[in-house]
Amino acid sequence: MTLLGEFRRLCLIIRVFFNYGLGELVPNVAVLRIVCRLFFWLPNHHKDKPLGERLRLALQQLGPVWIKFGQMMSTRRDLFSAEIADQLTLLQDRVAPFEGSLARQCIESAMGAPLATWFDDFDQQALASASIAQVHRARLKSNGQEVVLKVIRPNIRPIIKADIRLMYRLAKWLPKLLPDSRRLRPYEVVKEYEKTLFDELNLLREAANAIQLRRNFKNSSMLYIPEVYSDLCRENVLVMERIYGIPVSDITALEQNGTNMKLLAERGVQVFFTQVFRDNFFHADMHPGNIFVSYQHPQDPLYIGIDCGIVGALNKADKRYLAENFVAFFNRDYQRVAELHLHSGWVPDDTNVEDFEFAIRTLCEPIFAKPLAEISFGHLLLNLFNTARRFNMEIQPQLVLLQKTLLYIEGLGRQLYPKLDLWATAKPFLENWLREQSGPCALLQTLKQKIPLWAEKFPELPELVYDSLQQHKKLRQSLDHLSLQLKKQQRQGKARYLLNVGMTLLVSGTLLQLIGQHEALSIGLIVVGVWVWIVAWKRV
What does this chain do (predicted)? Predict the structure, then answer.
């Protein structure tokens, strides 16, 4: 997109922002308030609607990038009023659909044949519609299995590209306007967000993610992932088993079904930590629109997860540092928290550990004075970021998805069971995982993984040892040769120095002889010069 195109998109965003009367959401910062006053001529056309509805409609009008942002905010009822959160919840699966006939056309174009070739009873009315795709019901011809077909919205890629380019532009401006924002690493965050959004546009990737998650939770009593019919999937079409469940946000229906709400909330936390630490492969878009609860055995509730387009993973080091940080927080070991932040590189090497520990203690002790069930981990994270600003702590892009997912899980869990004790649920899991990483079980697991490789390489061991000795011999010879060369160069350097000194003495003595002054000194200089030359010649 050209610079002019980006400017037009920015103008559109500003116009939508003010046309829905969202100026009241701007933080009370002088610079921002002055900028807002420059747009006084853009009137609020929706004064009759409450703030939450206006925000939802504005995000919906701006497109998928902004809808995704609204979906994330909808789970944070501890940060936003019920009026706003209830409205943003509608963005999860009630976005205005596009025409069913156009959906049919897109699917048939992708599959290269009429739908009747594979499906019966295709319903052109969308079953659900979200920011990037929508879903239609059908039935497989081959076995009569009920399925759903997910199809990407047509012509959506240019819209996403436009918004992402604009976000990059804003990410470059932000540190210049607000120096404190540098620690947030806005450019890296936008880059990660861009990757996530474009990954969602490839439904073959989502199909692979769903297959992996289904395998990880095979026969699980906590989470069920619907079957994907990979032979029928295309880049913009996904075909999977149709599921029946209660939307996890429908608290009334869950209670009427007799669901054990406490266990359901706790299992949400357990599913999250299992995905992160056991599998290192976690569903990173677990907003309520993507989660259902099975009607069956409500006292032993089973989650059903869909829309696996966004997944996350951590490297081994980050995963261990994260687990140790959580456990240290649970144990109120603030010195350990500070040291882990330093060792992991999340704060600069020159950070004073004692000062950082004191800052964390000052923040956390008043929070931990409350009952654990009343503590919001989301609030704690936000306060930690504010505290860490003066220590130049940077947000790690690889943790952005994890942080967002954890906020989802806590927001969802507190909706299901307001007294959810996230700490008590997570701490035993994390402590057990850390023990497994360093105890006898970890050693046995490592040996189990390595022994086949060692057995394969063992016959090659004598040859490898011989090659190593030969390389060592060659290396020693090279070092000896290099040492001799260095000594030779040193001798030559000293010889050149002495030659220069001798030349200087000879010239000085000769000049004194020519002018007939200081005859004894001139003879002495010539003699010494000759002697120095002889010494230099021998060195050469």
Answer: Is probably a protein kinase regulator of UbiI activity which is involved in aerobic coenzyme Q (ubiquinone) biosynthesis.
Distance of alpha carbon 360 from alpha carbon 381, whole angstroms: 11
Residue ranges at the known binding site: 127-135, 150
Q: What is the pTM of this model?
A: 0.68
- What DSSP string runs through 457-497? HGGGHHHHHHHHHHHHHHHHHHHHHHHHHHHHHHHHHHHHH
Count CB atoms within 10 A of the CB of residue 70: 24
Q: Do 67 and 34 touch, CB atoms closer than 8 A?
A: no
pLDDT in tens, 336-394: 888 887 887 777 777 888 888 888 888 777 776 666 566 666 666 666 666 666 777 66
d(CA 27, CA 49): 21
Q: Please state, in angstroms and as integers, the Cα–Cα distance from residue 162 to each residue in 62, 489, 534, following that order.
A: 11, 62, 80
Note the pLDDT tens digit of each residue in 142-162: 889 999 999 999 888 888 888
| Three-state DSSP class for residue 311 | strand
Query: Given its phi and psi angles, is residue 332 left (phi above 0), alpha (psi -120 to 50 degrees) or beta?
Result: left
What are the backbone dihedrals phi and psi of residue 18, each rounded to the nearest 5 degrees, phi first?
A: -85, -30
pLDDT band at 229 (very low <50, low <70, confident <90, very high): very high
What residues form the annotated binding site for ATP? 127-135, 150
Secondary structure string (H, E, C) spanning 178-241: CHHHHHHCHHHHHHHHHHHHHHHCCHHHHHHHHHHHHHHCCCCCCEECCCECHHHCECCEEEEE
Domain ranges in the chain are 3-92+158-198, 314-453, 461-538
Active site residue 93: no
Residue 24: helix, strand or coil by DSSP?
Answer: helix
DSSP 3-state of 138? strand
Question: Measured between alpha carbons, how far is residue 148 from residues 4, 137, 232 in Å?
Answer: 41, 5, 12
From the candidates 93, 285, 307, 421, which is the catalytic residue? 285
What's the maximum distance between 2 C-alpha atoms anywhere in the chain? 124
Mean pLDDT of 325-338: 81
Q: Which two tokens stand for residue 478?
A: 């090279």
Helix (H) / strand (E) containing 449 = helix 440-457
Question: CA nearest 291: which of 351, 263, 339, 250?
Answer: 250
Q: How far is CA 20 from the centre of its chain?
A: 32
Question: 150: helix, coil or strand?
Answer: strand
For residue 449, the one-letter residue type is Q
Where do the H-state alpha helices sit in 316-396? Answer: 316-330, 334-343, 353-368, 377-388
- Give the residue from 488, 501, 497 showing the smallest Cα distance to 528: 501
